[in-house]
Fold this protein.
Amino acid sequence: MMSFKSAFVVFCGPCSEENVKKHYKNLQMLFKQKGAFDVVNDKNIIAEDYKELGYNNNTSSMLRHYRALHENKEETRALPSQATRKPELDEALVSMIVKDTQPFSVVDDVGFRTFVSKLDPNYILPTRQALKAMVEAKYETAKEKAKAKVEKAAAVSLTSDMWTSIHMDAYLAVTCHFVGENTRLDSVLLGVQAFPQSHTAENIACVKASMMEEWGISNKVTCMVTDGAPNMVACVKELKLLHHICIAHTLNLVVKKALDQHPVVSGIRAKARKLVGYFRSSTTAKEKLTQVQFHLGMEQKKLMQEVETRWNSTSLMLQRLVELREPVGAVLAGLQHDLAFFTSDEFNIVTGCLALLSPFYDATVELSAEENVSASKIVPLMKMLEQMLQEEVIKPAPAVVVQMGEQLIGLLRERLYTLQSMSIMSLATLLDPRFKVIGFFSQTKAAEAIKRLTSECAIIRRSVHSREETPQASTSHDVTGGSKLWHRLDASVMEARSSQNVTADATVEVQRYLAEPNISRLENPLEYWERQKMLYPNLYSLAH
């Protein structure tokens, strides 16, 4: 076998193109035997490469040549070119910024730049200004797509709220809801705008009107949902829109009123807030609570503080204290403090209150879901809440819990009867094939709703009938025998007969729909109406 040293003798000679190819082929074979490098295509080597790089007709020069020019080319040939990957990587970066709410300055962070360089050394991160422009361009593209979806909707409803950031900056948000493609509810955030001006109804109405005009929905809005703040209510009146107060806010007010009116419960809440505040402000107490949970083999959880404006935060705070009763008690026993933990009787009261509040929490979550029809659920949900409360108050419990349960029932009934009397709520419940009459608490209110639905159905039938009906002048003329004396009476008789037929047809359509079995609560009512629109065309128009 040829020695490695003898290879230097073999390759001495003029570095012509033929010799280079020949020498490279031999060197390739030799190094393959020695395991120096893998076989590569020898046609990549040309004499001009050597002349430009000034190699000196020896093996070291040729090896340097291969590594400098051809080995890197072979490795990079399998990877996409930088020009191809940059748009893809830019798009991924923009998506990360948007989805994770990252600041534009992240591209200037040393650690992030090092990380990206390790992933792809050839990728050049955009500047902060360029990234901002890319995000703005993505926003405009997404906005145009959203506008196209909203434009296809025949009717929309709006939800709106005002809130204040931790920096005390006020914002106004408006969201649009409609039936989109494939009979699914769809939602689009029209905007979240800074609102530095005075929060008067006129100012709020002006901003909302501007948003509706920008999105081309000024004539499509059927209802606007807000909280019960006076300026919000007056704003909707200013816009001349149908208004409905958010049921989740209503439930919040009901529970808060019940919680605030019981001194014992208020005292327990104050004690709970003080305990949570201590554990959140004391590093020692916080660390010991984590250690105790670990030693007890419990999932490590933190205490939660109550937020004054949200009743469900009260429920979550008390629930967490019940869950961590043992570790919290152990930590308090080992530290010096002036705090008093719950007594056994107070824990019984807390447990009873949580049983009352649990269905309210579930109802709030249910009503807050964007992908589900919510208006038709409101009356049935109130009915279920009332029934669950009735079951709780007959169970053995502290007197305070029973009193609170009875008060919640009274407040719910007050709200419930009001909702059942509202046309928009009663019709929505009847037209939901999951609920129909069963969703009502009062059968009297259900009967009133059926009469209202039949009347609305008849109006639609009459409108369709009048468009399709040919002029009756000649018929009337024939009936009266050519005399004008009886013309008005005969015309009135024919109109009454036609009205009776329309009302009868509407009654048949409504009764046939109500006689059908209810669909499952988990089914999509919009899909039901899409299937039945030929069988119940007028009810379909009302349902949509």
In short: Residues 171 and 195 are 5 Å apart (CA to CA). The first strand starts at residue 156 and ends at 164. The first helix runs from residue 7 to 10. Residues 1-17, 34-55, 66-78, 472-477 have pLDDT under 50 and may be disordered.
